[in-house]
Amino acid sequence: MGRQPCCDKLGVKKGPWTAEEDKKLINFILTNGQCCWRAVPKLAGLRRCGKSCRLRWTNYLRPDLKRGLLSEAEEQLVIDLHARLGNRWSKIAARLPGRTDNEIKNHWNTHIKKKLLKMGIDPVTHEPLHQQLLSEEKAPSNVSQSQESDSGRQCVAENDSTMNSEANSSDDSLLLEDINVCKNESLVNSLWLDDEAPLVDASWEPSLEENDCAWLLQDCQDFGIQDFGLDCFSDIEFNVLNTLDMGEKH
DNA sequence: AAGTTGGTCAACCGCATCAAC
DNA sequence: TGTTGATGCGGTTGACCAACT
Q1: Straight-line distance from the first to the last Cα atom of chain A, in angstroms, rounded to the nearest whole number
Q2: Handedness of CA A59, A60, A63, A66 (dihedral sign)
């Protein structure tokens, strides 16, 4: 026989997480670490599926997550990694510390895709669209979705000399400047040491010494820090983090 | 002011893979 | 060795919000 089921579908709550549920999950993970997600809902007192808990933690509650829009450099890195890896968002996310696969996937679908299309670049193949049409005429049946091929691994910037001349508005010129960041192969290659080895330690342990957890601390303040069991933080640390946060807003 | 449209993003669903039995 | 369940991943949905008409 196999293992016990992850959760009985009955009585499992769905939909947006409440602050109370977040508190419970954070408390549990910080106290016990990430073990078997199957047991988390029961032990943490949550009426959620373990899968849902894992998703909530990895995509939203992890203290090492960055918040806010991707920077230009991060966006360019995503484009290049996508050209090499395709829609393997988890692999891509592994090379962007503090970013989640879900976040990158969303950003790709809402921003980068349109940006590339506007530039006349196919977001799937990373080839100029007119070139894409030509190749489709030659081989109409097989537009490869695989990004493993050498052509798929081309950096977008390598195509910029053949980018169509339509991308010449002032906005597009700026975009072209952005995309040329990719010409700096050393930047990309430095992040491309090993296909399987993530830049961030996969075995993440809750570490509240990182500055990136400022948002979590803010949440803790909103909830009341004792509720999180994070009273190890001094007022000074909070003040420093708040100052940093204020500075970013200006 | 009300309705419509489009953008954003958190969360769910279903599949693939791996591991336990 | 086959079956079953856990986990992880990518695709998709839907709620929410802001801009526009």
Answers
A1: 59
A2: positive
CA separation (Å) from A109 to A19, A82, A114, A146?
Answer: 28, 12, 8, 18
A80: its two tokens:
């290049």
Smallest CA–C1' separation from A104: which nucleotide? B9
Closest residue (Cα, C1') to B20 = A2
Q: Which nucleotide is nearest to A51 (CA to C1')?
A: C7
Distance between the alpha carbon (CA) of A56 and the C1' atom of B3, Å? 34
Domain residue spans of chain A = 19-65+205-249, 72-190
Residue A69: CB less than 7 A from any atom in strand B:
yes
pLDDT band at A45 (very low <50, low <70, confident <90, very high): confident
**Strand C contact with A103 (CB < 7 A):** no
Closest nucleotide C1' to the C-alpha of A55: B11
Question: Is the C-beta of residue A118 closer than 7 Å to nucleic acid chain B?
Answer: no
- What tens digit of pLDDT does each residue of A154-177 get? 433 333 333 333 333 333 333 333
pLDDT digit string, tens, across residues A60-115: 888 888 877 888 888 888 988 888 888 889 888 888 888 988 999 888 888 888 88
CB A84 within 8 A of CB A92: no
Rounded, the Å distance between the CA of A74 and C1' of B11 is 24
How many Å apart are CA A230 and CA A177, to the nearest integer? 44
